[in-house]
Amino acid sequence: MRVKVNGETHELWTLWREGSEVKMIDQRLLPHRFMILTLYSHQETAEAIRDMVVRGAGAIGVAGGYGVAQAALEAQGKNQKTFKAYVSEAADTLRATRPTAVNLFHAIDKCEKAASKGSVPERVAATCAEADRLAQEDLEASKKMGEYGNALIKDGFRVLTHCNAGALAFIDNGSALAPIRVAHRSGKHIFVYADETRPRSQGAKLTAWELQQEGIPYALIVDNAAGHYMRLGEVDFVVVGADRIAANGDTANKIGTYEKAVLAKENGIPFYVAAPRMTFDLKCPNGDGIEIEERSPDEVNWVWGADENGKYSKVRISADGTVAKNPSFDVTPAKYITGFITDVGVLRPPYRRSIREALHTRKGSVG
Ligand code: RUB
Questions:
Q1: Same CATH topology for 2-142 and 150-358?
Q2: Does residue 165's CB lie within 6 angstroms of at least one atom of ligand 1?
Q3: Which of 26, 181, 234, 236 is 20 to 30 A (C-alpha) from 37?
Q4: Every domain of the chain and the residues it spans
Q5: pTM to 2 decimals?
């Protein structure tokens, strides 16, 4: 992605690997501060996923793969048995960070598998190669989603999106924001409504920032305003990302997605989910099998931001002792979804069939 920092333009990925170090944009500080963090061990990478330095299904999948590669590099001096035990324990540490986005589990499984054959040096090389391949696959998938999704967006469309499924949620480009970028770059006049997305405010902090960087016309709206604009006929198209899609098309995405989908259907607005095949989980027959992450009540009781001097701080918005609940995701039943924009095309109902066919388009690419 192209990022302007202090007047200078940089072309960057959201995260990347340099030998045993993983580098990532610290998303907790955006848009007020731009900082690249270096993670020196798989434990640090796991902590960065848990603490949402890096977030978004695609990006945490890549981070998980890199974490396993770091573990393989850390264990390269060990014998085969202790190497295997070390990598397997590291993989479990990485799996235990965030439960909902399946990309994390698919990437860790693939890298752990790569670490299981041959001599220790061969295992190390294969693990690093697999982690890098997954990053590349993520990048290619977002380009394809951009092309397929763009075909659905007409000139003049006003598009609503929820949370951040942009370049920051991927290696680059994004899932839901990829079609928007391609439409804008191809000269279509589009306008984006970016939902704020409490409690972590990924829409306000990340999506609005990405749209600003790209020069795409947009307005940030509070989560409760989406229905208002839909009823007024000011939204033509809704597109969101996904953290896990069950075999029947039920989709887990950021909390608040479900109500946007119901409102879209009520108002006759197409509602699309953009996600690569890595986000589909055939082991979940429907949305009931998807674990929903429950995060700290502090995220509801407090907000983070910068004051007029740019000083970054945390402010309490509820009374001391307030009891809060904080489910991070919800499940949108498949019946509300017009189609899935994937890296192999747009999938239509009946989803059990179209999803199964899409996942078998190129054997071995999905866990
Ligand atoms: C992010 C979120 C995003 C999906 C899509 O949640 O719900 O919409 O992860 O991601 P969080 P992608 O910020 O809590 O990780 O675009 O990578 O598929």
A1: no
A2: yes
A3: 181
A4: 2-142, 150-358
A5: 0.96
Whether the CB-CB separation of 231 and 274 falls below 8 Å is answered with no
For ligand 1, whether the C-beta of 55 sits within 6 Å is yes
Percentage of the chain beyond pLDDT 70 is: 98
Statement: 2-142 belongs to CATH 3.40.50.150 = no
CATH (one of 3.40.50.10470, 3.40.1550.10, 3.90.1150.10, 3.40.190.10) for 150-358 = 3.40.50.10470
Task: Give, in order, the Cα–Cα distances in Å from 317 to each of 120, 218, 321, 325, 328.
Answer: 53, 27, 12, 15, 19
Locate 23 and state its tokens: 């580098």
Cβ of 243 less than 6 Å from ligand 1: yes
Burial 187-214 (b: 16+ CB within 10 A, else e): eeebbbbbbbbbbbbbbbbbbbbbbebb
Cα(177)–Cα(56) distance, rounded to whole angstroms?
Answer: 12
Atom of ligand 1 nearest to the CA of 166: 16
- Could you report the per-residue pLDDT of 190-199, keeping only the tens digit for each? 999 999 999 9
Q: For residue 121, what pLDDT is reported?
A: 98
Instruction: List strands edge to edge, sheet with 191-195.
Output: 218-221, 191-195, 158-161, 237-240, 271-274, 339-342, 345-347
pLDDT digits (tens, 9 = 90+) for 236-259: 999 999 999 999 999 999 999 999
For residue 50, CA distances in Å to 33, 60, 162 come to: 20, 10, 21
338 φ/ψ angles, rounded to the nearest 5 degrees: -70, -35
- List active site positions: 243
Q: Look-up: residue for tokens 């200078």? A: 8
Nearest-angstrom CA–CA distance, 264 and 271: 6
10 Å CB burial of residue 157 (0-12, 13-18, 19+) is: middle
Mean pLDDT of the chain: 96
Q: Is the peptide bond before 31 cis (omega within 30 degrees of 0)?
A: yes
SS3 15: strand
Q: Under a CB-based contact definition with an 8 Å cutoff, are residues 203 and 168 in contact? A: no
Q: Angle, to 10 degrees, between the axis of helix 177-185 and the axis of helix 120-150?
A: 60
Half-sphere exposure (Cβ direction) of 22: Cα atoms closer than 13 Å: 34
Q: Considering only CA atoms, which residue is closest to atom 1 of ligand 1? A: 56
